[in-house]
Amino acid sequence: MKVFRDLFIHLNGFRIDSLIDLFTEKCVNNWQRALDREKNAGIIGEKAFSFEHTQGDDLERAGLSLFQKDGDTWYVPNIIPLDSSELSHDQYNKILENFLETIVRPSITGLPVTTNLTGDVLFLKDVVGEDVAALLHKFSVLANKSTGSSHPCDRNRWFDFLIAVQRKHISLNTDLLINSLMEDGWSEDRAHDLAIEYEFAIGLLDYKEGK
Fold first, then answer.
1. pTM value > 0.70
2. What is the arithmetic mean of pLDDT over 2-28?
3. Which of 98, 141, 165, 179 has the most CB atoms lying inside 10 A of its own CB?
4. Does residue 40 have a pLDDT over 80?
């Protein structure tokens, strides 16, 4: 499933203010510092450093801010479109990648600062593990896809997957579940039905566990 990428910047002892000064020096062509946006963050009690990508080089006009993740790590939690209501996954990721390549990496050459850019595709196994993902795949391969989980044998394999997820206390996004089911041959409608079953079943198992 396509996802929005995350950028983490690890200072490793380097001062954030000094790093931002270096970033600002690299703001040429389609990048500029957005000081007004930083003031807005200050109003809500958070320190942020903001930059804006002006329209050009085949990328959308958008703004991003660096916030503190923990003591030594800063990250970009979101990119805000300035000329449209939303960005596609590809548009978002290309802007973030451009910020990394144009501003961040040239600035940190020779410094102890490191970066981590997460992938743009998320697989079920990345969230639930190979063993649990295999249970869902087994259910999908053997199930009668016209009846969903209603046949006793199919239902048991579906239950095996549900129980395995709940026992690991995994937070599984239903969009990822739906996408994974469709990749295994389920129709969109059946995948949505199973996702609804999933949410109910996990809620019930969590409730029973908490009793």
1. yes
2. 96
3. 165
4. no
